[in-house]
């Protein structure tokens, strides 16, 4: 298993009560001495102070536990300040910046130099949606993209599988540790992703303790789907109020894709949606797609007719770092 002394220091520091991602981002740049880290911690933590000896003991504890626990499941872990730690895209507040990742496969696929496209959507797409999504994913792969998604059933699985079928690379971002892949029925797909040169990545080294915690992890996974891509593409998704709109009361029609698209908007990550006005107008599975088109003029639209040239435009767009919300021309303006 590959890891650095710095990554162990970051993990250990975060274990102290009151120390979160924002503190790590503000205080540590990577490879600080133990004395420096302990001094910084003691200025923040409440109650009993720590010292280098205690920090070192906790650090070795984590090291021994992780090596024993993940030896057969994880290729390594990286943290803020490591050479291999991937830079996120977009403009992000400190509390939402990733600082630590466990991985299996090629961690370089998340590199800022790599062209990554997230393709996400709902859990139960109709066959026509799957067919259209597959064509779009295949076109992205033909243009050199690595496909990022969340290994969920439905649109996520379709995007991963089509990337593999097109002899491309794909990255699955998980809400669970690598020794407990979720959903369990997609373990075979996860193994195939790694075997064919892809990547599994997660922020978590321990199992969730409640459904509430798992729900929170899915939200955090959704944010990474936005942060580690150059453009995020929504295949299809219900909206938050789809059940009410279509009078299908008692059914949960909202999807996690809504959160990922929301994060992308907040982070100034370019967004695209799959949508055809004529055939999708009365389909509740495209409620979120329609909402995004109406709300934001900078959302790119992929149709059956334009997806080939539109994929090329997305791929040829040079990444830029902005501190204000970018204004992009809608393809249909």
Automatic annotation (TrEMBL):
Family matches, as SUPFAM superfamilies: MCP/YpsA-like
Biological processes, Gene Ontology terms: DNA-mediated transformation
Domain Smf/DprA SLOG positions: 78-235
Nucleotide-binding among keywords: no
Keyword DNA-binding assigned: yes
Keywords, in A-Z order: DNA-binding
Gene Ontology MF terms: DNA binding
InterPro entries, alphabetized: DprA, DrpA_SLOG
PANTHER family tied to this protein: PROTEIN SMF
Family indicated by similarity: Belongs to the DprA/Smf family.
Protein name per UniProt: DNA-binding protein
Species name: Labilibaculum filiforme
